[in-house]
Structure formats: structure tokens, C-alpha cells
Fold this protein.
Amino acid sequence: MERAPQIEVRGVAMGYGEFVVQSDLNFSVGKGDVFIIMGGNGCGKTTLMRALIGLQRPAAGTVRYDGEDFWGATEEGRERMKRRLGIMFQGGALWSSLTLAENVALPLAEYTDFPPARIAEIVSFKLALVGLAGFEDFYPSELSGGMKKRAGLARAMALDPDILIIDEPSSGLDPLTARRLDDLILELRDSLGTTIIVISHDLSSILAIGSDSIYLDADTRTMIATGNPREALRTGDPRVRHFLTRGSQ
Amino acid sequence: MTLAHEAAAGEAGRKLELRRPAEDSLEVVLSGRWCLDGTLPARDAVERELGAGVRRLTFAAGALGEWDSGLLTFLAGVLKACAARGVAVEQGGLPEGVRHLLAMASAVPEQKVPQRDAAAQSLPARVGKATLELVRGAPAMLRFLGEITLSFMRFFSGRAHFRMSDLWLEVEQVGPRALPIVSVISFLVGLILAYLGADQLKLVGAQIFIADLVAIGMVREVGALMTGIIIAGRTGAAFAAQLGTMQVNEEIDAFRTLGISPVDFLVLPRMLALMLMVPLLTLYAGFVGMFAGLVVSVTIFDISLFEYYNETLRALELKHFWVGLSKGTVYGAMVAFAGCLRGMQCGRSAEAVGEAATSAVVTGILLITIAASVMTIVYYQLDI
Ligand SMILES: Nc1ncnc2c1ncn2[C@@H]1O[C@H](COP(=O)(O)OP(=O)(O)OP(=O)(O)O)[C@@H](O)[C@H]1O
Ligand SMILES: [Mg+2]
């Protein structure tokens, strides 16, 4: 597995109006990494994700995908880079007027010329991967919170993206389902070579799947590079150890 | 020595006593039942006492009965007052559970978040702010108008992405389902017009011209105006609420990240549905209004059915229908524009969705009225 940085973040700062959420973020994500962004509630993880996926222009700094400046690019260039991303939002963000199958099918219909029968097959398979086989014709409002999240992941995986960005996969999932999702993430990485960015504060999952990580600190409003979370747990920054041990260290 | 003393309040026998065991210390003695459902004492007495040279505060709760958050909020307030005055507090006298909960409440210090300017502002400040917001809103409106124009261009070149089934769903919502309310209102408005005309035309003995007034009035102006306003309240608000909820659920972000234009997918079918259906409803409203005029004229003002019919035919020209239809189309577009604009601008909370819906109706009716005036003047000048 080559380890050229696929995503590079340099000097990024983000905020809402005057309020600076995080600043001076520097990290790079290698191809095939499972990169964890961790931190307490409200420290700015989701805001960072929005800067990575083109929803919110950072106040400063650059984001590069394979060396190409994301925010400095033209609208078309950004669209092209975004097409390599699959994104699962914190709340699932399923389109409420479409059934699950239609939700997963829409990106496929949009960006491939597959015939409908083929698309239907792919959709069923992706839903089965996240444990939702048989729920094709359900509307999002007819699902539980955890099921919505899994459906959101199925939609994010629809186009087999190069880079999968997942906001809190396991919060709201029962332990067994969360475990299966971790396995799925590792499997996607191993078999499809997908680079995966996971925003999480689920400790067991962070330690189980992470290969690299950063910690966003809410007090200093900047990041701590933490490397492999398992090592960070043993030898990392005291604040990170405090977080990873649920405050007992 | 008991210095201050607040008597037991009511049935429960709750009691707060303040003792001064030493010159610089204060003991707070709690007894009886301290629950939210009873009346709780004010902290004034304690704070007054704290002001009088106290450096140390202790508690005695030996006779404390049942307690809940009532006691905790009281104590939290006392602790805060002590912290502000630099008084040392010994919580040893409190029950263990109380101590633990108080410690937890103070474990995470208050966050330093940006100040909210929620404080009441003076009237001039509020007016100024509202004006600035109005002015700042204009570019956003224009940008949205531009996005919609681009989207229409994609639509006419066959490249817009939306689902036909969405369009038909909206068409059904806007059209057939609005028929009852449009019928009722246009019938009543037709009736009002007929009475208004009858009263005035009686003076010159030309009551037969009621037919002209009602026909031209309903078909040219009032049919479209009433339909537009009904649709603004019924559908404009619904559009804003739907899109606003999608904004809250990050559904619109999900479209954006997939590179699917939410304007194409969500706004376009809604615009098309209204621009298609409002003219048809306008036409229908015109006929219902004329029918009301007929009923009134024949039953109340002794005009024969045949006379009324002939007079109506004489009065109506095709151009009146074109004027009505064009106005209906424009009003439909205005309502859809206002509803979708406010929906897409919606913030991320349930409250914001409500505001978006309200604002959509207000904006919609405002735009309709402006468009109505402009078009009436233009058509008059062009002699249409
Ligand atoms: N639209 C907004 N306007 C103003 N401030 C915002 C907005 N959205 C988020 N914030 C603030 O930005 C900070 C970071 O929010 P963010 O959603 O990124 O947190 P998070 O790390 O994802 O938290 P969680 O773990 O709870 O999901 C919070 O302090 C929040 O108050
Ligand atoms: Mg978040």
C-alpha cells in the first residue's frame, strides 16, 4: 500500500462569524488510512468535515486532494473533486421524500449509465452490507435513528468513492451493529482501498479501526496530532490520554 | 445563637435557619421537606447575611427530610453567591447525594462562547437592524433568482435533474386540492363585486352593467389576486416548511456534496407546478366569480338570465383572459420563489422552520402586490 498523502490540510481555521471554532489545523491523510478525527462535543469536528467537503469555506488555510487545491479551484474543479467523496452525515441526512432504495439509487442514476435493473441490484447489495436488506421501500421517517445512519452510510458507499467521510458512525448504534460497522469500514479499506475519515468519539471503535488520528481540543481551539490511537493511548499527550481513557488518566 | 430565622412555609414544615456560630462564620440549617412542588425560600436572607462580614459558610442538615432539585437549585445559588464574595464553603454538613450532585454541576466550567445579543434592544436599534437585514437580504434574493434562472435554462435544454413524479405530486397538491378554498373565496368575492356594482349602477339606472363589472373584474384582476394570496398562504408556507426541514436534516447539504443542484431537484418542480396551476386556478376563479354575479343579479336585482349572459359575452374579450392568465403565472412564480427562498435560507432549528414559513407568506404576498401594481399600470399604458 503506497502512503502518499491523499488529503492535505494546511493552516486551516474555521469559525462562525466572529466565533473561531478551530484554527491552525495541519494534517495529512494517506491513501488507505482509517483517519480518526476525535474530540469532545462541540469542539468542531462536524465543522471541519464541512470544510473538507465543500460546504463551508474555511476562514484560512488550504485543503488539497492529491495535491490539488480544493477551495482555490473553480466551481467545476471542486465538483470534480467532490465526486470522489462519499459522505455520511451525523444525522443520516436521507432525502425524506425518497424511499431508502431511491436514496441509494439517486447518486448511481446521476453519475452512471447503468440500467435500472442493475442499479436496483447494487442498491440491494449496499443496503444488505449495512444490515438493511428488505427495507428498500421504507421511507426515512419509518426508520429508527440508528437505521437512518446505516442507510446514510449505504448511500455514501453507493458510488464506491475513493474517500469515505463518516460523521459519527457508531453513536446511536447498538454495540453489535457498531462492531459490524467497524468491520465493514476495515473491509472497505482492505478490499477496495478506500481512504476513510471517521469522526468519532466512540472509544472502542477509535481504538479498533484507527490507523492515524487527530484530536481537536475544545479549550485551546486547535488540534493535537495523535498518530495511531492505540499508541496515543499509551504514550500520547496527556489530554488525549485523558480523553481515550474516559478521564481516568 | 439564632440571628436570622425564616419561619416554616406551609404544610411541609420546610425550614431555613441562619446561625452565626462565630463572628465571621454563618451556619445554614436546613430541615423538613425541600421539594420543587412546595414554595421555596428566596436566597435573599442568606445573601443579606453573607454581606455582613461572613468569611466561612457551613451547613447543618440533620433534620432534613425529603429533597429534590428544589434544594439543589437553592444551594447552587448560595454557592454561586459565596464564590462571588470569596466566602469559603464547607459542604460537610450536607447529605452525600447533595454534595455529589453539586460537584457534578460545577465539574465543567461555564463555556466561553460568544456573547449573544439577546438582551432587549432599544426601538431605534431594532429598526436599524431590521433595515440593514432587509438591505443585506437583497443580494441573497438576487443570487437565488440567478440560480433559478440557470436552473430553468438547464430545464429547457433538457439537462435539469429532477423527478417527474415530484412535479406531478406538487401539481396535485397545488391544483386539485386547492379547488375547494378557491371556489369558496372566488364565489364570495364575485358576490361582493356584484353588490358593489349594483349599488353604484342603480344611481344611473344601468344595473345590467353588473355583468361587465363582475366579468372583467374577476377575469382580469381579482381572480388572479385572490388565487395568488390563497396559494401564498397554503402552498408558499408549505414549500418553506418542507425545504426548511430538509435544511435542518442536512438533506440539502447532501445534495450539494453529491453535486446535484438542490435548486434543480427541489425548487424547479415547485416553481413549475405553481406556474402551471395558478393560471388554471385563476381561470377557474374567474368563472366561479361570474357565476356568483349571475346568481345575485338574477335573484336579487331582477336581471334575466339571458340578459346577464349576453352582457357578459359582450363585455369579455379574449385579451382579458390573457391578462388574467399572465397575472396568475407571475403570481404563481412569485409565491414559489418566496416559499423556496425562505426554505433554502432556513436556519437549523424547528423555530427557524416556523419563521421561514411565516416569512414565506409575507414575502409572497408582498411580491404579489408589487407585481400586481406594476402589471396593472403596464397593461393600462399598453392599452391591453
Ligand atoms: N450554524 C452555526 N452557527 C454558529 N455556531 C455554530 C453553528 N454550528 C455549530 N456552531 C458551533 O460550532 C462549534 C462546533 O460545532 P460542531 O457541530 O462542529 O461540533 P462537533 O465537534 O461536531 O460536536 P458533536 O460531537 O456534538 O457532533 C460548537 O461550539 C457550536 O456551538
Ligand atoms: Mg458533530
In short: Residues A 16, 21, 39, 41-47, 90 surround adenosine-5'-triphosphate (ligand 1) (CB under 6 Å).
